[in-house]
Write a structure and sequence with these properties.
about 300 residues, mainly alpha, two-stranded antiparallel ribbon, 13 helices, about 50% helix
Length: about 300
């Protein structure tokens, strides 16, 4: 896969099992480095139709699609498919062309059906889904009907509906949506110049990047805010990037509080570690541990039982 973007954060954190990071040199470098849609089913024939030899064929699923916003070119798909529901999140992360009106468990089930339908279409074309396709084309083709809320339902699903690879793909696309929204390119290398011309923002302007990230993350679904550890970390990192850069440049920052106490406490932890300097680890700060405990305490009961803190 030929995807460029901001690398994963390099700071060690306590989070769900299997999600770990390496120590970072400074908190500011972490904040900088950490930034590197299916609608309701309609007109489905539950009984299917018969082919020429009398076998029942599976009905074709049809899903609502958002209008193009210009960012779908950075999420390339196979001919005849669309990624507009993925792209809409770059400009409107609250958009729910697929998931609207459904509970999270229902969204997960619909997403499973939708991805399976795309897998079948790809197989029927003679070119089955490939997890390591060039420019991640098969990712966007298989997941192209999903909105951000559906991606989050996959990423945080604990029912076993989705494979580890599918959950990682959902997370990667969510990260890409955020990066593009912040003016940090992530996508096919050949289109980097087109993105720079389209976005027009300076990625080295850390105040602008941090502010854009915080405001964008504030627009995602409440489900994501309450169930995604990545949201907590990214929201805090965006605010810290904005505020710390303002302090270094002598500018007066605007208030960017998310309204969530665990995010405020995580920002505090970042600030404390920056002041302590080398030789200290974020994991051991009481404010950091408190932020994680606050987050776990507000996670819906069906998910909180499987969340483990490691310090």
């Amino acid at each position: 896969m030929n995807i460029e973007g901001v690398g994963l954060s390099s700071i060690q954190t306590a989070r769900q099992t299997g999600l770990t990071r390496e120590p970072a040199s400074t908190l500011l470098s972490y904040a900088i480095e950490s930034y590197q849609d299916l609608g309701p089913i309609s007109d489905v024939d539950d009984h299917g139709t018969y082919d020429s030899i009398g076998q029942v064929t599976q009905p074709v699923l049809r899903f609502a699609s958002s209008q193009p916003n210009g960012y779908e070119i950075f999420l390339p798909v196979r001919a005849g498919h669309s990624s507009t529901n993925l792209a809409i999140a770059v400009t409107d992360p609250s958009a729910e062309p697929f998931s609207s009106g459904n509970a999270k468990s229902e969204v997960s089930e619909l997403a499973r059906r939708a991805i399976d339908a795309r897998y079948q279409q790809m197989a029927d074309s003679g070119q089955p889904f490939r997890p390591k396709s060039n420019e991640a084309v098969d990712w966007y083709t298989a997941f192209g009907d999903l909105d951000r809320r559906a991606l989050n339902a996959i990423r945080t699903d604990e029912s076993g509906l989705f494979s580890a690879v599918e959950m990682e793909i959902a997370q990667s696309i969510m990260t890409q949506q955020q990066s593009l929204a912040m003016g940090l390119y992530q996508g096919p290398s050949r289109l980097a110049g087109a993105f720079a011309d389209k976005d027009g923002r300076d990625p080295s302007d850390h105040m602008a990047v941090g502010r854009a990230g915080a405001l964008w993350l504030d627009q995602v679904s409440l489900e994501e805010k309450r169930t995604s550890p990545e949201w907590m970390e990214q929201r805090a990192a965006a605010q810290y990037l904005y505020e710390s850069t303002a302090a270094q440049t002598g500018k007066q920052p605007e208030k960017l509080s998310s309204g969530f106490g665990f995010v405020d406490r995580m920002v505090q932890a970042y600030s404390e570690l920056e002041k302590l300097g080398e030789g200290h680890e974020l994991n051991y700060l009481p404010s950091y541990q408190h932020a994680w405990q606050m987050f776990v305490d507000q996670v819906p009961q069906e998910q909180s039982t499987s969340m483990t803190l490691f310090f």
